[in-house]
Amino acid sequence: MNGDDHPARPPPHGAAWHVCSYCNKVYPNLQALGGHQTAHRKEIEEMRRQHEARVQESKQQRRAAAAAAAAAQTADEERSVNLELTLGTGVGGPDLKLRL
Ligand SMILES: [Zn+2]
User: Fold this and answer.
1) How close is the Cα of 42 to the center of ligand 1, in Å?
2) Which of 17, 22, 61, 65 could cross-link 11 (Cys pair, CB 3.0–4.6 Å)?
3) Rounded Cα gap, residues 95 and 99, in angstroms
4) 10-residue block means of pLDDT along the chain (100 residues)?
5) What are the φ/ψ torsions at residue 26 (nearest 5 degrees)?
6) Basic and acidic residues bias: where (predicted)?
7) pTM, entire model
8) CA–centroid distance, residue 51 to ligand 1 (Å)
9) Cα(47) to centroid of ligand 1, in Å?
10) What's the rounded Cα separation, in Å, for the pair 19 and 11?
11) Which of 52, 27, 28, 49 is nearest to 37 (CA)?
12) How many Å lie between the centroid of ligand 1 and the Cα of residue 12?
């Protein structure tokens, strides 16, 4: 840290101080404020990047969960189709015999 952790002192009377719009610290000149706010922008950029990464990750997890659910449903449907075919064969058996 470069002295930013010191509590901000109130600006002396008649002096033009510059207030950081992110954390309300005051700086005696624009150069100091500018350097300080550059650090804020890097923090914000990093937070945004991490947030985007988390959003992407949760999207992928949701997609994977949805795909797994869809696969499970498809398996269920295939099972019930097989069951119907088995029943159909059983029911169709006597019909075929009757027709013979
Ligand atoms: Zn600040």
Assistant:
1) 12
2) 17
3) 6
4) 59 76 93 96 97 97 96 87 66 58
5) -110, 145
6) 49-60
7) 0.46
8) 21
9) 15
10) 10
11) 27
12) 19
